[in-house]
Design a protein that fits this description.
This protein is of the alpha+beta class. The chain has a domain of 54 residues. 61% of the residues lie in helices and 14% in strands. The chain contains one helix and two strands, in the order αββ. It has a two-stranded antiparallel ribbon. It is rod-shaped, with a radius of gyration of 42 Å.
């Protein structure tokens, strides 16, 4: 009879040990999730800060074509013709 009670107490101790291990694993998972959430939030804050930095954009340099004008005689004066 003593052997049976020894086996029962050993099984109970093992059950408690398994339960404690599961609780510790659960707590560890909770802490890891919390850390990942904090890291994600910090990363998002950094991205938003980068987006808020306004970089003055320079106007693109576009070559402008100047009109070619010619003075053409017309009667007693000249007329300017531009294309």
């Amino acid at each position: 009879m003593g052997a049976l009670s020894g086996e029962a107490s050993s099984a109970a101790a093992q059950t408690v040990n398994n339960r404690n291990t599961l609780i510790q694993q659960n707590e560890l998972q909770i802490l890891q999730n919390r850390l990942q959430r904090q890291q994600y939030q910090q990363q998002q804050q950094q991205f938003r800060a980068q987006d808020r930095q306004i970089v003055p954009q320079q106007r693109p340099v576009v070559p402008q074509v100047k009109p070619t004008c010619q003075l053409v005689p017309s009667g007693s004066s000249f007329v300017s013709t531009c294309r």
